[in-house]
Inverse folding.
C-alpha cells in the first residue's frame, strides 16, 4: 500500500480533460489581461526612444524606430521638470514617513482591549470615511492654518488614511500573539517599549504594504498642488506633467502661432511627454520589487482573523 502511494506521488497529478481545458482557457485569459495592461506602458517606452514623426504617423508598434534620446535631453534642459522631480521625491519620502507614524499612533490605541475609549474613537474614525466637510471647508482650513502655498500643504491634510488605520488595527488585534505582549509586560516593558521592540517587528509585511499605498498616492498626487500651491518652484512632477500634456498643447493652439510652428512644438511636446511619463514611472517600478514579497502577506494578514 505504502509503495503504491509513493509511486502515485512520484508520478504527480496530471489534469484530466475538463481541467486541462480550464488551464488552457485560464492561461489565454491571463495572457490577454497582461497584454491589455502591459501594452500601454510598453508603447510609451518605445515611443520615448522613437522619432516623433514616425510615432504620430502610426509607424511605431513593437520596437523603436528612428532611435534618438531627444526627449530625455529635453528633460535635462527643462528646469520645471527637474524641480518637480525633486519636489515629488521630497513630498513622497516625507509624506510617507508622516503617514506611517500617524497610522501607527492611531491604530495601536484602538486595538487595545483595555483602552476605555477604543470603541468611541473607532466609530469616530469610521464616520469620517462616509462623511466629510468637502473641498471648500478643507481649503479654508488649510488657508487659516497658514499652510497655503507651503510644502506642508502637500503633507498635513492627507497625513492619515482611515482605511489604512483599520487594516493596521486588525493586524495589531489578531496578528500579534497575546502571549508575547504578556511576556513583555512581565519583563518590565512599558507601552512604548512593547510597541517598538515587540509589536512593530512583527508588523513589517503590513507596514511595507502601507508604505507602498502611501508612496504611490503621494507620487501620483497632482490635484492637491493645483488647490494649495501657486508657486511654480513647489509644484510636484505630476502637476508639471499635466501642464505639458494638457495646458501646453491648448496654449500653443490658441496663441495665434503659425501652423508650422505649432506642429513643430507639438512634436517636441509629444517627444517630451513620453519621456517624462517613463521618468516619472521608474522610481515606483524600482521600489516595488523590494516590497513585493511582503505585499500579499501584508494585505491579507491584516484582514483575516488568525
Amino acid at each position: 500500500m505504502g509503495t503504491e502511494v509513493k509511486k502515485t506521488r512520484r508520478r504527480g497529478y496530471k489534469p484530466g480533460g475538463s481541467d486541462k481545458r480550464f488551464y488552457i482557457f485560464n492561461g489565454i485569459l491571463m495572457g490577454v489581461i497582461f497584454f491589455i495592461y502591459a501594452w500601454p506602458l510598453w508603447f510609451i517606452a518605445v515611443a520615448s526612444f522613437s522619432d516623433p514623426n514616425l510615432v504620430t504617423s502610426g509607424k511605431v508598434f513593437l520596437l523603436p524606430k528612428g532611435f534618438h534620446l531627444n526627449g530625455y535631453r529635453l528633460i535635462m534642459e527643462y528646469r520645471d521638470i527637474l524641480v518637480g522631480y525633486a519636489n515629488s521625491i521630497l513630498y513622497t519620502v516625507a509624506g510617507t514617513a508622516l503617514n506611517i507614524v500617524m497610522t501607527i499612533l492611531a491604530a495601536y490605541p484602538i486595538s487595545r482591549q483595555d483602552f476605555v475609549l477604543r470603541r468611541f474613537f473607532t466609530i469616530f474614525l469610521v464616520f469620517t470615511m462616509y462623511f466629510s466637510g468637502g473641498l471648500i471647508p478643507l481649503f479654508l482650513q488649510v488657508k487659516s492654518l497658514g499652510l497655503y502655498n507651503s510644502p506642508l500643504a502637500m503633507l498635513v491634510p492627507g497625513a492619515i488614511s482611515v482605511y489604512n488605520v483599520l487594516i493596521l488595527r486588525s493586524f495589531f488585534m489578531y496578528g500579534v500573539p497575546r502571549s508575547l505582549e504578556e511576556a513583555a509586560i512581565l519583563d518590565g516593558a512599558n507601552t512604548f517599549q512593547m510597541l517598538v521592540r515587540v509589536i512593530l517587528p512583527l508588523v513589517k509585511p503590513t507596514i511595507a504594504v502601507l508604505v507602498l499605498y502611501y508612496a504611490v498616492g503621494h507620487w501620483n498626487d497632482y490635484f492637491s498642488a493645483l488647490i494649495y500651491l501657486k508657486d511654480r518652484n513647489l509644484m510636484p512632477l505630476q502637476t508639471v506633467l499635466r501642464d505639458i500634456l494638457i495646458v501646453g498643447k491648448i496654449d500653443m493652439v490658441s496663441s495665434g502661432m503659425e501652423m508650422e510652428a505649432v506642429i513643430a512644438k507639438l512634436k517636441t511636446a509629444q517627444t517630451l511627454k513620453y519621456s517624462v511619463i517613463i521618468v516619472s514611472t521608474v522610481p515606483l517600478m524600482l521600489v516595488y520589487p523590494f516590497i513585493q514579497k511582503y505585499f500579499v502577506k501584508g494585505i491579507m494578514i491584516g484582514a483575516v482573523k488568525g
About this structure: Residues 5-10, 249-255, 302-306 have pLDDT under 50 and may be disordered. The CA atoms of residues 110 and 122 lie 6 Å apart. Residues 259-301 form the longest helix (43 residues).
